[in-house]
Write a structure and sequence with these properties.
Blueprint (H helix, E strand, L loop, with lengths): L15 H28 L10 H29 L8 H15 L5
Helix pairs in contact: 1-2, 1-3, 2-3
Length: 110
């Protein structure tokens, strides 16, 4: 009888639990920053027909949210490739970026 030897491969991260926690913390901070900008874009309202800066403000906040979520998506791609976090982490920056893009396109006009 021959015995088959199966080799166990070490996970890509040296300390998988610690690396996962640190990567998740970084992603949470980046997504929270994008969420903060998106919340400001969503809550900005026109004060009246004389308020012409509301459109610029909403588009600026949505643009900052898109920028923060682009950084978060890049960090997510890096962490997923390293094997520290799972692929479902892509859902958060994609969802926030879609909402920010829709808000930027449909910014209120005075």
């Amino acid at each position: 009888m021959t015995e088959s030897v199966t080799e166990r491969h070490a996970p890509p991260c040296a300390a998988p639990v610690l690396a996962t926690v640190l990567c998740a913390a970084v992603l949470l901070v980046l997504n929270a920053l994008g969420g903060y900008f998106l919340l400001n874009a969503l809550l900005t309202e026109s004060e009246g027909p004389w308020d012409h800066t509301v459109t610029d403000t909403v588009r600026l906040m949505a643009g900052l949210a898109l920028g923060a979520e682009a950084v978060a998506a890049a960090a997510t791609a890096w962490f997923v490739a390293a094997g520290c976090v799972r692929r479902w982490w892509y859902a958060v920056p994609v969802a926030l970026a879609v909402v920010a893009g829709v808000r930027m396109v449909f910014a209120p006009t005075p």
